[in-house]
């Protein structure tokens, strides 16, 4: 059986490491749950696209379907990530 150094594994595969450790990183949809209105949602989409955390295609998909995503708005309070098992 192959044994790995935990820190080396974390550096090589950060997303897989987080999944195995049980932490879930908030996604853009988690952030949209905090939005009060469409303008805030557009700001969040722009921010994620600028930081290259989502692709331009996914960003334009979200913008085009923002009316369908309105059900997410105001479903989570700020700071509610840890209570739901998400990391900050």
Detailed description of the structure:
The structure is a single chain. By secondary structure, the protein is mostly helical. The chain has a domain of 61 residues. 48% of the residues lie in helices and 0% in strands. It is built from 5 helices and no strands. The longest helix is centred in the middle third of the chain and has 13 residues. The N and C termini lie far apart (34 Å).
Descriptive terms for the model:
5 helices; single chain; 0% strand; mainly alpha; 48% helix; elongated; 88 residues
Give a quick summary of the entry.
The chain has helices spanning 6-12, 14-21, 28-32, 38-50, 56-64.
Q: Mean of the pLDDT scores?
A: 83
Measured by DSSP, the beta-strand proportion falls in: under 5%
Radius of gyration: 16 Å
If helices are DSSP runs of H or I spanning 4 or more residues, what is the number of helices?
A: 5
Low-confidence stretches: none
Give helix and strand order, one letter per element, not per position. Answer: HHHHH
**Cα distance spanning the termini:** 34 Å
